[in-house]
Design a protein that fits this description.
Elements (H helix, E strand, L loop, with lengths): L1 H7 L5 E6 L4 H8 L3 E6 L11 H8 L4 E5 L13 H15 L6 E5 L20 E6 L12 E4 L2 H7 L10 H12 L1 H24 L3 E2 L6 E5 L3 H13 L5 E2 L9 E5 L3 H15 L8
Parallel strand pairs: 1-2, 1-3, 3-4, 4-5
Antiparallel strand pairs: 5-6, 7-8, 8-10, 9-10
The structure holds pyridoxal-5'-phosphate.
């Protein structure tokens, strides 16, 4: 993400962020001195999908469009056909107005969880950069390996920004072995799916409004920011760290939690149950 921002975002430039989405897109955009143009996604009832006309309009002023499917923190993929349509519209709009089409970054950090990728779309949209990571479905976040798939001339434009020795040979060797062994992915996906369903059921039983998720995290709504903060503090006191969203964020009344191993998920469920109980009345 950082390299794409360096390669394609000039300091006076702009990037489109369909929000809510992964927080780092804004960070790497603003680190370049470029402007983040937030475009609200459709609501929860519409699966947090892209508002296509609004993204298209905003992209006229931008060099980069940040897409993420399945999206963090909403936990859902774009509805089928959405990204394809957007790319077609972006290309047609740029051509009609005589300007280069924007670079579209499609972050597929969670793509393995849906078993599908849109990286084939780079054939029709040459300025597509698909980004992947070993951190999620391969559960190898500590190795710090991610990569981009794009057409050769696009990769050539990114390559000069790679710091020397940015990925260790040890990390590359381990991730390569994991990528080549289908059983690693199968086992991880089965574990996440099983634990995600169990965790979601446990949290719902404790009164949490847990939304659907195809990823290794769950997003839960609490109806008000105060309640979300109360629950977050209760969890923190028990050594559990949820993702909170700041005031003014469209998910300010939500928390995001990661699906972890069985014992850790049990701890979270137990904490949610405790926090749902009425506070004990002090003895007089
Ligand atoms: C959508 C998305 N992209 C990229 C990343 C970055 O993962 P990493 O830096 O571990 O490769 C994350 C991690 O949370 C993410 O949610």
């Amino acid at each position: 993400l950082d390299l794409v921002a360096k390669a394609f975002l000039p300091p006076s430039g702009a990037a489109v962020l369909p929000t809510p989405t992964y927080a780092m897109y804004r960070v790497v955009t603003e680190q370049r001195g470029a402007r983040a143009i937030e475009v609200p996604r459709l609501g929860q009832a519409d699966g947090w999908g892209l508002d296509l006309p609004a993204v298209l309009a905003a992209a006229r002023a931008a060099q980069v469009v940040w897409l993420c499917s399945p999206n963090n923190p909403t936990g859902l993929p774009e509805p089928p056909g959405t990204v394809d349509t957007l790319l077609m519209d972006l290309a047609a709009d740029a051509e009609a107005n005589g300007r280069p089409a924007p670079i579209v970054v499609l972050d597929e950090a969670y793509a393995e969880f849906v078993g599908a990728s849109l990286l084939g779309l780079r054939r029709d949209y040459p300025r597509l950069v698909v980004v992947r990571t070993a951190s999620k479905a391969y559960a190898l976040a500590g190795l710090r390996v991610g990569f981009a798939v794009a057409r050769p001339d696009t990769i050539e434009a990114i390559a000069p920004y790679r710091p020397p020795g940015s990925v260790s040979t040890v990390s590359v060797a381990i991730v390569t072995a994991a990528l080549e062994d289908d059983t690693v992915l199968e086992a991880n996906l089965a574990r996440v799916e099983r634990e995600r369903d169990r965790l979601a059921a446990g949290l719902r039983a404790a009164g949490w409004d847990v939304g659907p998720s195809v990823t290794n995290f769950l997003l839960a709504g609490f109806g008000s920011r105060d309640r979300a903060i109360d629950v977050a503090q209760g969890l923190l006191r028990r050594g559990l760290v949820p993702r909170t969203f700041g005031e003014g964020h469209p998910l300010a009344d939500h928390l995001r939690v990661t699906v972890r191993d069985t014992d850790e998920n049990d701890r979270l469920i137990a904490a949610a149950v405790e926090l749902a109980l009425p506070a004990p009345v002090a003895a007089s």
